[in-house]
Every structure is written in structure tokens, then in C-alpha cells.
């Protein structure tokens, strides 16, 4: 009953002589089982073993949904108010896991209290990280994932159109952000990948600014950064515009950012070092005199999570592989003046790349 996504992790357990792995992050469990569950403080875990059947542990109130998602293996359902280990340990013993030397866990997401509980029952075990194997398992998207992410990206394109068409002098950032989210839910989005960012004027100079009551006026830059969740997968897009009028410097900054993005895209193909994408984009911005105003990495992986492996920064020596999906999002942010960011979702193909986001990137002065 081992599915194709679980199989590589099991092979890794065998190769590394690991007794078992406990996976607790909801996103990774969704990837491996198709069961999408956010248990809050309750225990959710997937135990994988090198030589026996997997075990899914979930709250009792989620058991039916786990079956509906297609999980065919054993489920240990834990009622509220009961120590989940009282049910987990007998299930492990039934698999002859009475002791363990090496247990793989997600060190970045396993709470200390649960690590302590695990070691209470297996005190001789050494905990090792499962992150690298899990990252590898999700890094290369299959055809179904790509199709889903392409649909999410198309919805993100639509969201930009909605926001842009709603701009009127005197409207506020919050009004436009709220409208985008409302309209996308009406159109069938599962939700937003993160809080929708709509920024006007000088606030576009904040890479992670929050929409507020800033009113739109002529000469403002307008920045949209948003993402759509579709069937459990995320998109992420940023577009920047000028409203009614612009200055020469605003246009110059925009074209610098666009040139940086295009320079990184030119390198996108299997076999290229990830860090080179950041370096070439950053060099364009530095050569234009704006280097100190590009204050973040070039991009991040995209999939079940809005931010996942790989991280597109200059020190990343990992190699681009077919099926990887990530953002490229150079930006220039000048305090009190404003900024520009342009972001696309990029799929690495056998011979190059494919853009999943498609909203036009040419310089636009809107509202005329």
C-alpha cells in the first residue's frame, strides 16, 4: 500500500539504518498522504518504517476525513484529553519497535515537548534530521502538481487584474486588498497564500509592508503582492505600477528590476547553481547604483507552502533540477520614496523554464 511519495522516504530509512521517522508537519503529511489537516494543539503524526507498514496518528474527530482523503493504512485515532502516546506506543510495539537507535524527525517543526515524549519511550535513540530527505522528496513537482500550481498562478494573474481595475483616486490599500480576497473566494480560491499586500506611494518602499488607510493619489507607485491557494498548492505574484503619472526615477527603477528578473530567468535551466540566479540579478541592480536597496534574497521555493525549499540566495550551491518551482522576485526599496518588486513563479523544465504566472510585466502607468 506504499504510495509513490512515501517510497523514497522508506528507501532513505533503509539506506541510513534509521529505525523510523516521525513526521509531524501538516504540510509534509498532506504531501505524503493527501490528508490535509491542521490539528491545532492536537497530535498529528505519520510514522514511516524501513520494513513495515506506515502508521498515521490523528485526532479522533479527523479520522473519517483521513479515510476520505485516501489513506488505506492503519490509523491511530486519539481522543481529546487523552495522552496520544498511550495509543501510539502499543501500535509501535505491534510492529516490533520496542527500542530504537536512530529516529528521524523534523527538527525545524517538532515541538520540544513532543521530542521529549518520544525520547521518554525510546531513551537510547539519537534524533537525526529528516529535513533534507523530505525537501528532496518535494522539490521536483510531478505533472499533477504542476497542473495544480499553474491553475493557482492563473488565479493570481486574475487577482492582479481585479485589484488594478478597482483603483480610483482616494481609495485605500485595505479596501483594494479586501476586494481582491473577496472576489477570489467568490471565484473558487481555497484561500489566500498569505495576507494580500497592497501598498501605495512611499509604502511600496517597505518589502513587507501592511495595507492600511493610505489613500491613493496621482504619482503613487502601486504594489500588489498576493498568492492563491488552489487544491492545497500556492501561487505567489508581485506586480508594480504607477498611478496616473510617474517620475523618470520611478521608471528607471522599474526597468532596472525588470532587467534583473530577466537576467535571472536567462540562467534558468537544469544544472545551474541556484546561487547564480541571485548573483546575476543582484549584479544588475548594483551596476545601476541601487545595490543597497535590494535587501532580500532573490526568491524561494513554492508548492504546498508559500515558502519552501529551495531558497534562492547567493550562497546556495544546490543545482536546478527539472520540476523545481520557485519565485524570482528582485526588488528596489528606497525609504520615503517607494519601491518596485516584480515576481514570477518559475518551473524548471527539461531544457529551460516555464513561467506559471503570466500577468504582463511591461512598465504601465495606470488609471489614465
UniProtKB/TrEMBL annotation:
Residues 148-350 form the Peptidase M24 domain. It comes from the Bacteria. CDD domains: APP-like. Keywords: Hydrolase, Manganese. PANTHER family: AMINOPEPTIDASE (PTHR46112), DIPEPTIDASE YKVY-RELATED (PTHR46112:SF10). This is Xaa-Pro dipeptidase. Residues 5-139 form the Creatinase N-terminal domain. Gene3D superfamilies: Creatinase/methionine aminopeptidase superfamily, Creatinase/prolidase N-terminal domain. SUPFAM superfamilies: Creatinase/aminopeptidase (SSF55920), Creatinase/prolidase N-terminal domain (SSF53092). Belongs to the peptidase M24B family. Pfam families: Creatinase_N, Peptidase_M24. Coiled coil: none annotated. GO terms for molecular function: aminopeptidase activity; metalloexopeptidase activity. The lineage of its organism: Bacteria, Bacillati, Bacillota, Bacilli, Bacillales. It comes from Marininema mesophilum.
Amino acid at each position: 500500500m506504499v504510495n509513490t511519495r512515501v517510497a523514497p522516504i522508506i528507501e532513505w530509512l533503509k539506506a541510513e539504518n534509521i529505525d523510523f521517522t516521525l513526521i509531524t508537519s501538516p504540510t509534509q503529511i498532506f504531501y505524503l498522504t493527501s490528508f490535509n489537516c491542521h490539528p491545532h494543539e492536537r497530535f498529528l503524526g505519520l510514522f514511516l518504517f524501513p520494513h513495515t507498514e506506515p502508521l498515521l496518528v490523528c485526532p479522533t474527530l479527523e479520522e473519517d476525513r483521513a479515510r476520505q482523503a485516501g489513506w488505506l493504512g492503519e490509523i491511530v485515532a486519539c481522543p481529546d484529553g487523552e495522552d496520544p502516546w498511550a495509543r501510539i506506543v502499543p501500535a509501535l510495539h505491534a510492529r516490533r519497535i520496542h527500542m530504537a537507535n536512530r529516529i528521524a524527525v523534523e527538527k525545524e517543526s517538532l515541538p520540544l515537548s513532543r521530542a521529549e515524549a518520544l525520547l521518554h519511550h525510546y531513551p537510547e535513540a539519537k534524533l537525526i534530521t529528516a529535513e533534507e530527505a523530505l525537501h528532496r522528496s518535494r522539490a521536483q513537482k510531478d505533472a499533477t502538481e504542476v497542473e495544480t500550481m499553474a491553475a493557482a498562478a492563473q488565479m493570481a494573474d486574475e487577482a492582479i487584474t481585479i485589484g488594478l481595475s478597482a483603483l480610483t483616486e482616494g481609495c485605500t490599500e485595505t479596501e483594494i486588498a479586501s476586494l481582491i480576497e473577496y472576489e477570489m473566494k467568490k471565484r473558487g480560491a481555497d484561500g489566500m497564500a498569505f495576507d494580500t499586500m497592497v501598498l501605495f506611494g512611499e509604502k511600496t518602499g517597505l518589502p513587507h509592508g501592511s495595507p492600511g488607510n493610505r489613500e491613493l493619489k496621482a504619482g503613487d507607485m502601486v504594489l500588489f503582492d498576493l498568492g492563491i491557494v488552489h487544491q492545497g498548492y500556492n501561487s505567489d505574484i508581485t506586480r508594480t505600477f504607477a498611478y496616473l503619472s510617474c517620475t523618470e526615477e520611478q521608471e528607471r527603477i522599474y526597468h532596472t528590476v525588470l532587467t534583473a528578473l530577466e537576467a535571472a530567468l536567462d540562467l534558468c535551466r537544469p544544472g545551474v547553481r541556484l546561487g547564480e540566479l541571485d548573483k546575476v540579478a543582484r549584479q544588475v541592480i548594483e551596476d545601476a547604483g541601487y545595490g543597497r536597496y535590494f535587501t532580500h534574497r532573490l526568491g524561494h521555493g513554492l508548492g504546498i507552502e508559500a515558502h519552501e525549499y529551495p531558497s534562492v540566495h547567493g550562497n546556495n550551491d544546490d543545482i536546478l533540477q527539472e520540476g523545481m518551482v520557485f519565485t524570482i522576485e528582485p526588488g528596489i526599496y528606497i525609504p520615503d520614496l517607494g519601491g518596485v518588486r516584480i515576481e514570477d513563479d518559475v518551473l524548471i523544465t527539461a531544457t529551460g523554464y516555464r513561467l506559471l504566472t503570466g500577468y504582463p510585466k511591461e512598465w504601465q502607468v495606470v488609471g489614465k
